[in-house]
Amino acid sequence: MATxxxxxxxxxxxxxxxxxxxxxxxxxxxxxAPLNFDEKPEPxxxxxxxxxxxxxxxxxxTLDLDDHQRLFGSIPTLNLLRSAANLGxxxxxxxxxxxxxxxxxxxxxTSLVRDAILKTVKHTFFQHFCAGETTEEAADCxxxxxxxxxxxxxxxxxxxxxxxxxCDRNLEGSLGSVELAKSLPASSVSFVIAKITAICPIGLLKxxxxxxxxxxxDPSFYLPWKxxxxxxxxxxxxxxxxxxxxxPLSPKEESDLQLAHQRLLKLCQKCVQDNVALTIDAEDTSIxxxxxxxxxxxxxxxxxxxxxxxxxxxxxxLKDAKERLFxxxxxAQSLGIPMGFKLVRGAYMSSESKLASLLGYDSPIHxxxxxxxxxxxxxxxxxxxxxxxxxxxxxxxxxNVESGQLAASKACDxxxxxxxxxxxxxxxxxxxxxxxxxxxxxxxxxxxxxPYGPVDMVMPYLLRRAEExxxxxxxxxxDSVLMGKELKRRLKKLQFxxxxxxxLSSMKIEIGTH
Length: 514
What we know:
alpha/beta
């Protein structure tokens, strides 16, 4: 156990909670009734359930998303044209399919073709969705968006790795992100984002997840390497990935796990030292248990004094998301551990459903997009109520306009000040600009998710963005519509100015002839 990392206060608390933390299930939380979203929150009552955002009227914080001039007036025309073109291409599913086919084909093995494609990508999608190739370019991007009233979430955009040398290199990149955040103007960076898949071999994450799942099924299953953590599963969690009792970790695997922990602890210590919050990104359900284990064990060590440094991520498209969020938050609060979460909808809908179907199980994803929206809004409401009671923090990462409007209204109704450091809205860089500007104009803190790194290294990230967001980009046309209106307004203004100049010149000529 990692008791040597815990404060004296937590050490005195943990003996009675160790088993609860390591094997908590829905059954063990007998006092947790089914979530009732019709109740109003009472002060300092974590047991009370959130009032559903769906029932909140948008009265105090209605977002103005109609005034295209106010939303996009500060963006240069050339940038606006480029953004509209990139969004249009990204929303075209045939174009996305063709681009992904090229990127995954043998054409990329030919240096001339590869160089040409990477150059094209760099000046189109990379420029639109990424902050740059170097820390200097990322810093310039942060300053630009900060001038517009946004903050940056710095992401050293590396994906999965399978060996320790690569994990060590990726750690240096993440540490560089923290150093970069420290060097930038105060409050211009809200978070540094880390991927556990970048600092722990992917195969090991699968093994650890299997072992954690089996221990949840059989609490007597002993894991000698396991640190104190918070609840990872609920009775509705997907456990079908592990159908047979897994073998214990080998000495080599335990050694690699220890190395991965040391990498994360080094990153956390750097964040504490420089007072930079760290958010751990979520992945698919095959490895998410291990990621939550890393996240929560680190949060126990480093989240203190109402200052959550380590944030977890909850994916609202999962059927167990709401239950897990409640259980984890309740346990953390009872232990005096401030916990922060980033709320997202999720990005692996197709692959998750296919795997579950292949194994003969129901999908872990909600059956409809409406259910996912409802879950997201309920989770957001729950966290906003905790913040109003003085506990925790939340990043509401959403591209859904209704969710943004509802959360803004809920925050105002609860008396949460718009500058409250425990509440942050966030969108991907290059996406949902209207919502970002609308929330900013309403006085809320808004961050943009800023991936950066060499084009060839960031390519897997861009491919995943294209695949994950094709539905979002093709169905959400708000940005494109508003950008089109703003461009038309500028064109009419230009035409009027030219007409006025022509008329003035004509008058001068007439005057000159008389």
